[in-house]
Amino acid sequence: MTVLESTLNALFCMSIVFAVLIILYIIIRFFSIIIGNFNRVETACPIEREAESAPNLNTVPHVSCGTMKLIGVDEPTAAMVMAIVSDKTDIPLEELCFKSIKAIE
Question: What is the domain range of residue 85?
Fold first, then answer.
């Protein structure tokens, strides 16, 4: 085998290795995009589109933000905490979205 043949053989092998690495990179990016779309979570509560375009601004849409976890807190105490947070922040209770309320010992 001559030096020219050895060089061509080495270049061919390196090009195959780089081609496989590029294909693996494309596959990993593709799967990360797909998995990223499944893991996308909304952080804010959804607001109905009809309520936003309603001409009467005095009506408040009733939007549910899902379930709330109460950890070591009974329901009346949780309701009081939510009312206090709404009052202190001057945000209407309908616009707040609580995920959990936990009692701190």
Answer: 49-102
